[in-house]
Design brief:
Layout: E1 23-26, E2 34-38, H1 56-59, H2 69-80, E3 83-87, E4 109-110, E5 113-114, H3 116-119, H4 123-150, E6 156-163, E7 166-167, E8 170-171, E9 176-179, H5 184-196, E10 201-203, H6 215-221, E11 227-233, H7 240-258
Helix pairs in contact: 2-7, 5-7
The protein binds zinc ion (ZN).
Length: 280
């Protein structure tokens, strides 16, 4: 498929290292409606930002990215022919799964760790990160959707994330979670399909999927496109074989959902996070 989007040359320092790519795109098969988003694929930081004052250990943790999610997305795309967009910058730089006005768009403190490179960030620097990283990635995701619609397809959108096995001292029992707002078309059959695979699935756990301005809100809820977010527990993604097994499982679960009639139309269900968006 041809994409009109270009990866910007965004490293402004003259004669410096090669431009940092804010995202990667995988072109899908022409007859495949599934589009995958991997907002937290990477813990990479553009060279100009160094390590944001964090040690290597901190950058290897969940605060910087969703461990294992990138491998699952790349493998799932290969298995299904889905298109995919992957953000190649750490959420600590700027979080692609937060709205532009969200106070957690750039975290000053994450999971108890102070982020020195963000501690005294001003509006101007936030705006710069929005323009250079956040907006190009959002536009790339929208570009995949627009390409599908231009081909006459109603795309089905799934965000893949991962979560920590333990949060504030409590073990999380779910092996996976399906997060959704008010559109049940994808979420309910995903929950059912994963449970049929003997997976302990959280329904809007460990997080609530209704979040104003997040990726699902932007790409699915606002546009009436079937979408959901899948969270996988990180201890189940520790090895390439684990990630491969999850990709195969998700491919099995998603395939019959794509043939369901209710996923083939634009329908507005509204949002629990935004009363201004009403269901039509
Ligand atoms: Zn995530």
């Amino acid at each position: 498929m041809s994409l009109t989007l270009k990866i910007p040359h965004n490293d402004s320092s003259p004669g410096a290292e090669p431009a940092f790519r804010p995202f990667d795109l995988i072109a899908g098969a022409a007859d495949q409606r599934l589009i995958l988003f991997c907002d937290h694929a990477s813990n990479a930081l553009p060279p100009a930002y160094g390590d944001l004052g964090l040690c290597r250990e901190a950058l290897g943790r969940h605060i910087a990215f969703d461990i294992g999610a990138e491998k699952v997305v790349r493998r799932l795309a290969a298995l299904t022919g889905a298109a995919a967009a992957l953000a190649l910058f750490s959420r600590l730089l700027i979080d692609p799964n937060r709205g532009e006005d969200d106070p957690t768009l750039v975290m000053r403190i994450s999971d108890g760790a102070l982020i020195p490179g963000n501690a005294r960030i001003g509006e101007e620097e936030i705006a710069r990160r929005v323009e250079t990283y956040w907006r190009p990635y959002r536009a790339a995701c929208a570009g995949l959707i627009d390409s599908a619609l231009a081909r006459g397809q109603i795309p089905v959108l799934i965000g893949i994330h991962s979560f920590t096995p333990c949060f504030q001292g409590c073990a999380r029992r779910w092996q996976a979670g399906v997060l959704w707002d008010k559109d049940p078309r994808l979420a309910l059959p995903l929950i059912e399909g994963l449970r049929a695979e003997n997976i302990v699935v959280g329904d809007n756990e460990p997080y609530d999927g209704a979040l104003l301005g997040d990726s699902m809100y932007e790409h699915s809820t606002r546009r009436g496109l079937p979408g959901a977010l899948i969270e996988i527990r990180q201890d189940l993604l520790e090895t390439p074989a684990h990630c491969e097994a999850w990709a195969e499982r998700l491919a099995r679960v998603v395939a019959p959902i794509l043939s369901r009639a209710e996923t083939r139309g634009i329908e507005f269900f509204g949002s629990r996070a935004d009363p201004k968006i009403s269901s039509a």
